Each structure stands twice: as structure tokens, then as C-alpha cells.
Amino acid sequence: MRRLITAALSLAVVGIGRAQSITPSPDPNTLHATSTLVVVPALVETPAKEVVYSLSAADFLVTDNGVPQKITLDRASNQPLSLVVLMQTGGSAIHQFEQYRNLETMLANILGDPPNQVSIVNFDSKPETASPFSSDIEQWREAINQPDHGDDGAAILDSLSFALRLLDQQPPANRRAILLLSEPTDVGSKTTIKEVLRTAGETNTAIYTLTFNPQKTAFKDAFKQNAHLNPPLKVGDGVYQAYFNLSEPLGMILGAMQKNLAAEMATLTGGEAAHFDTRHDLDEALATLATHIRNRYLLTFNPTQPTAGLHTLQVHLNNHPDLIVSARTTYWSPDAAPKH
Q: Can you tell me the distance from the alpha carbon of 27 to that of 10, in angstroms, rounded to the nearest whole number?
């Protein structure tokens, strides 16, 4: 992280870019971007994994707690992207540093052109200083490719909470996303799953995860399936794609997420989860993410029944049984008006 701090100071000295605050809001409960508008990023593919580009709003059916919604549609490429890259540098991540070399090239491919912006955050037992948001990821090359060794921690939930507060300071009209490179399970966080899930849901933030195996043989099979290929589960009057039954009490749901925390967060927020063992795996996964992030459909709606709490979402394709759609399965409706 010393490299991130040095790079940030150098940027300020030479005057590249506009100065920004890199300290998230001190109140973790402050949400400036909460809105009744629900954003549902949706990826549509053929069975051969080819991205489908030509659909219209009439091709989609979105239900909120089983109730059909009136949606509008946009393309993700039409909205600026604010991205936070969370890189684990503590715990077992020190053995992955060789895989991170030249990572900035692949991250630049995901980011695309201005006005898209990225901030880099390294974490171990806690999230460290964030780089200022920038459209030029090249300036963080050394910090990304040669990070400093962290301690023994892997505070994923604390770091996701930190990243969400950074994104809370970005323009409300921007798409918001987090890319997490880490082991699959949390070690040492004080933030709860419920807090992260709620904040991500209220701010329409998608979480993408690329995980490595601290013990390769023990976790290898858990990440073979794509998130949207899990069997459907019955929830009320509808059928939903999820890792667990959303009709269970919330406490049981959150407990079920512990084993595959990173993948679960990706599924519930409309992102994607992938696994890597080698540098080749990582490069392929990042290339796929770059394509998918830029080519998602953005489905939006104002809930007809905006009750507070966890809502279940389902996205269908009308008259396209041959296509596969991947989308977030939940969102969190706020209990009250946004806090300022």
C-alpha cells in the first residue's frame, strides 16, 4: 500500500487529474444514493456463451416478489462506470502476487474509456488507503503489479463496506461496481453480511468476484458452476435462481452464505463469480468480465409495492426459451428516506 500512497501523492504534486477526496464517509450508515429506482443489470447469452445484443424492453419480464413490473431498458455502455477494485494482499494472497503482474492491462480493458473511473484498494485485516478515482489505471501500475505484503487477515466484508462508501461519493447516475480479487471466505471482518447486502442493494452496486483457493483441493469443486446455472428454487408463488432458498428466515440465508461468501455476493447483486488457479485463468476471467460488464442490459423500474426489506427478483425472457439470462436475484428496499 506504500506504493498506492506514493502514487497518490505524486499525482497530487504533478497535478494530473482533479483532486478528489479518498476518505469514505465516516458514518457507515450514510447513504446518499438511495433511490426507489431499482436497477437490474442483465446479461443474455446463447447456450454457447455468445452474448446477445439485440433485445428490447418487450423481450424482458421482471417480477418483484412475484409481481410483474413496468421496466425501461438501456445499455450498460451508455452510462459511465464507477469501479472499485479490491485486491487482497494479506493472508494467503501473498502467494498470488505473481498472478497479479501486468494486471493493470486487463483492468484497463474492463474500465474502458473515460468518463469511466476506477479506484484501487488493497486489503488484509482491514481496507487500506484508496487511490483517487481516475480514468487512467496506468498510473497505478506498480501498486497493482507489485503490492506490499499484508498481514494474516482477509477482511472481505469490511473491505466491501469500505468500497461501497467510496462509491456512495460518485455521481448517482453512474453505474457502480466492485471487482473483488480474494480468497472465497472472510477472515476477520467486523461488518456483517446483512450490512453489506443491504447497502449494495440500496445503492444498486454489482459485485464481481475472482477468487483463488487457499487450499486448492478443498475448495476446487465449489466454483465449477456458473452462478446462473444453479437449480431454481421455489419462493412464494415464483421460482428463482439462487444458491439458497430465499423464503427461509433472513438469519438462515445469511448463515448459508458463509461457505461461498464471494460467489454469493456476486449472485445476489447481479455480478459474476469466477475462480482462478493460474495467471492464464485470471486473464481469461478478466477478459470475459470486460465483455460482460460492457454488454449487459440495464433494466430499471419503480417498484409497484415498495415495502421495506429484502425483495426477490426474477428476470424472464419472453419468447426466447433458447437464451440464458443472468441477473441479480434480490434488492433491498430502504426502511426510510435517504439520510444526508
A: 29
Closest CA to 272 of 316, 227, 241: 227
Please tell me whether residues 327 and 219 are part of one structural domain. Answer: no
Q: Is 309 found in the same domain as 179?
A: no
> Do 173 and 43 belong to one domain?
no
Same domain, 183 and 288: yes
Same domain, 325 and 219: no
Number of domains in the chain: 2
Task: Tell me which long-range contacts 18-21 makes (C-beta under 8 A, separation of at least 24).
Answer: 19/132, 20/132, 20/133, 21/169
Residue 237 lies in a domain: no
How many CB atoms within 10 Å of residue 188?
Answer: 17
Is the domain of 260 the same as that of 319?
no
How many other CB atoms are found less than 10 A from the CB of residue 252? 11
Q: Which of 301, 293, 289 has the alpha carbon at shortest distance from 39?
A: 301
pLDDT at 194 over 60: yes
Decide if 188 is inside a domain: yes
Of the pLDDT bands very low, low, confident and very high (cuts 50, 70, 90), residue 76 is low
Q: Which of 60-64, 128-132, 144-148, 227-231 has the lowest mean pLDDT?
A: 227-231
Cα separation, 73 vs 216, in Å, equals 41
H/E stretch holding 120 reads: strand 117-123
Q: pLDDT, tens digit, for every residue of 211-247?
A: 998 765 334 434 444 444 444 444 344 443 344 445 4
Give the integer Cα–Cα distance in Å for 254 and 204.
19
C-alpha cell at 184: 472465497
Parent domain of 70 = 38-75+298-333
Whether the predicted pLDDT of 49 surpasses 80: yes
